[in-house]
Structures are given as C-alpha cells and as structure tokens.
Specification:
The chain is mostly helical. The chain is built from 6 helices and no strands. It has 3 domains: 88 residues, NADH-ubiquinone/plastoquinone oxidoreductase chain 6, subunit NuoJ (Four Helix Bundle (Hemerythrin (Met), subunit A)); 28 residues; 38 residues. It is globular. The N and C termini lie far apart (104 Å).
Length: 189
C-alpha cells in the first residue's frame, strides 16, 4: 500500500477522533464554560474536516460563524448568567425513551448514508461547475432557500431568548436596588 493513499485516511481518522472526543467531553463536563470551550474545539475540528472534503467556503464559514461569533455569544450569555456548575437531575422515563428512539433513528441514517455512498445505488452527484463557489452559494441560499434561512434564524433567536428567560427567573438583577424598609423611630422616654 502506498503511503500517499494512507495519509488522507489517517488525517480523517485523527480529526474524527478529536471531533468525537470533544463532543463527548462537552456533554460530560459539568462546568458550562468548559462545555462551551469543548464545543469551540469541536466546531473548529468539523471546519477542518470540511476543508479536507474540498469545501473551503463552508469550512471558513464553520470556523468564523460557529466557532467564532456564535460561541462568543454563548460564552457571553454563560458569563452574564453565571457559570455555575450544572447539577443534573434524575432523567425522566419519557426522556430516556425519546433518547433511545432518536439513537435508533441516527443509526438507521448512518446505515442509509453508508448504503447510498458505497452501495450500488444511482444517486446523482450534486457537485456542478459552481460547487463551493461563494457567489453561487449566496445566490442559491438567498433565492431558493431564503425562507428556511429566515425560519432558522428566528428559531435560534427564540431559543436564545427562551434560555435567557428560563435561567434569569429567580436571580437578582445586577443593577436593581431593593426598597428600604423604614426603620421605626426610637421613642424617647
């Protein structure tokens, strides 16, 4: 076996292991700041994976938008709300059932993806002359996919506002002043 054919598989394997390890560490970590930093590393690793797949625009977008802007926003919200340690509660049975169902769906999707990629199916390849061209991506995104793009942005905004509302409930506002209770006058006898 030629070493030049083995190197891309080695690079992909190392990047995949780092991506899986950082995703698991993000889920396991009890400190919210560490979880966010593990997610930054995961986003950067996925960006490098996109680069190895020949999609430099998506790789740059992944690193700039997700690992940069969105994670700075997440860290800002974490620091604003307080980076306390997460105290897990006992999972509900319905959550465990839902997690199991979603896990099975994920495994089925992986199997179907493998069959489509390496099986004898005739799936057309989407790569055309303007593949990974920022101009063509922008035209495609804002003409054919403008509505899903806007819906996704509204969902993310609603999730951010909901997370802030849920975590701020019961916490004292930073600049608020509690009303003073009038002290009783001392009586002079």
């Amino acid at each position: 076996m030629n070493i030049n054919t083995f190197i891309p598989y080695l690079v992909f394997g190392v990047l995949a292991l780092v991506s899986i390890a950082t995703a698991a560490a993000m889920l396991i970590s009890r400190d919210t700041v560490y979880s966010a930093l593990f997610l930054v590393l995961n986003f950067a690793t996925v960006g490098v994976l996109y680069l190895t797949l020949g999609a430099p625009f998506i790789a740059l977008s992944q690193i700039a938008v997700y690992a940069g802007a969105i994670m700075v926003l997440f860290l800002f919200v974490i620091m604003l709300l307080g980076g306390e340690r997460f105290i897990p509660s006992k999972p509900r049975r319905s959550h465990l059932v839902l997690a199991g169902v979603l896990g099975i769906v994920f495994v089925v999707e992986l199997a179907l993806g493998y069959i489509v990629r390496y099986g004898n199916t005739s799936v057309p390849v989407v790569q055309g002359p303007g593949y990974a061209n920022p101009n063509m991506l922008g035209i495609e995104l804002f003409s054919n996919y403008a509505l899903p793009f806007e819906v996704t942005s509204l969902i993310l905004l609603a999730a951010l506002v909901g997370a802030i509302v849920l975590t701020r409930d019961g916490k004292k506002e930073v600049g608020s002043v509690e009303p003073e209770v009038p002290a009783e006058k001392e009586s002079t006898n």
